Amino acid sequence: MEKTPLEQFKQDITDRVSQYPQNQPLQSASQEFFNQIGIGKADYVYNFTWLGVPIIQIPQDLYALQEMIWKAKPDLIIEAGIAWGGTLIHSASMLAILEACDEIDKGHVLGIDVEIRPHNKAALANHPLSKKITMLEGSSIDDSIISQVKEFAKGYKRIMVCLDSNHTHEHVLAELEAYAPLVSQGSYCMVGDTVIEDAPDDMTSKRPWGKGNNPKTAVWAYLAKLENESVNAADGSRLLFEMDKELENKLVLTGSPDGYLLRK
Predict the structure, then answer these.
(1) What is the pTM of this model?
(2) How far is CA 205 from CA 31, 39, 101, 171, 260, in A?
(3) What cellular-component terms does GO give this entry (predicted)?
(4) What is the pLDDT of residue 207?
(5) Cα radius of gyration (the chain)
(6) Nearest CA to 156 among 132, 129, 184?
(7) Could you tell me which CATH number the domain at 5-263 has?
(8) What is the dihedral of CA 48, 51, 54, 60, to 10 degrees?
């Protein structure tokens, strides 16, 4: 059967993007750009806002989040790591769009951070999208916080998770153990700053994380565990994730290589 124009457009993306990993000039340009925009150099990620709120993200990753949210159509997005709160506002705005399009009934964002600074909390509380956001203050891997999140999630049908807080291997692995099982089939767990594994040493020399101890190594460990063990999700089904490499590869520049995890 002949493909529709949209089907052909999507096939063209797949065909084109499949060549990107082997395109050495493209990959070299991406790596050099990343090396120059990093913290302590251009500080590129500190240049942007979303609906007026600072958002510390590479813009390409925000575009990926938009595609993920539209595809998965979650009614709850759980985010570990708040900082200024721009990503909370981004998620809330996408859920508002899903509501306006009658794709979901009522969406909400649940944010967690070990410290929510008063000025950030005030700015978020005064934002027009504040009614779509709930925040919990405490460590995302503390048992009481995990219990609160799981209780909160019971009222929702489709769940997506974004992990972007403490970037040590141990912390991110504990977050994956706690929150990945909440992700609905066909939805995503996005793990931020996996690029630390590939970053120049001078970008992470003053941090408690670095090569061999970061979100990417935690993702690798978690996926290996799922492959080797019979791990069941909260709804009783087998818990399996795969990396959405097409989504990652078409970005060319991303802070989350190997971090776009699609629940099968």
Answers:
(1) 0.94
(2) 19, 11, 46, 18, 26
(3) plasma membrane
(4) 81
(5) 18
(6) 184
(7) 3.40.50.150
(8) -40
